[in-house]
Give the backbone structure.
Amino acid sequence: MEAKEVNITYEVLFELLKREKDTADLQKLEPNFFNDFVDYLNEKKNMLGKEDTLFSYDEKKKTEKQIENAKRIIKEIYERREKKILNIALLKSRTKSNVIDTSSLLENEKRFLDEVVKVLDIFRNDVIANVIDGKHASEITMKKEEMDEKDNEPKEEKGTKLVRFLCSVPKFVGKELEEYGPFAEEDIANLPAEIAAVLISKGRVEEIKEN
């Protein structure tokens, strides 16, 4: 199989970092930039793993140093771009503008931008919009957090329900293979709430509520 051409070099990384430092705008990168970096890193690691007498001690140390520096550079490139994307997200959330140029963003950076804008919009609406409307921002935000926690809770009901059968129901098993029934019309039973809810939705039983 033909070896894949590696488009990244140590010199290229250093130049990319310099340009990212020198401009306030995001520089345009190749779409597969981070994947290309992984290929570059793996190629360097493979060089270290080869038993080659022509690969001197000094060259090995130089390669190890390049790997170490390359990791530091890629991290700094990412973090500088991350900061710029956060600034774009702030501008986008504040101005509600859809004409902001995002052509220099990689695909994963576009997803990152979209998610950050969503969060900023939610809290902007929950805080400043409600403060202007005369509502306490802390209460609004707390209610939203409580709603988010509730949304993440399992939906199945807990406990049991007392029900009356409106028609006969043959024997059936629950999700833990426990057996129930058979039940005749007008039978009364205390069933797990989840099973009772299914039977109620199908019109087989009605809940007997305590006064």
About this structure: Residues 1-6 have pLDDT under 50 and may be disordered. Residues 160-207 form a domain with the Ribosomal Protein L9; domain 1 fold (CATH 3.40.5.50). The radius of gyration is 31 Å. Residues 57-95 form the longest helix (39 residues).
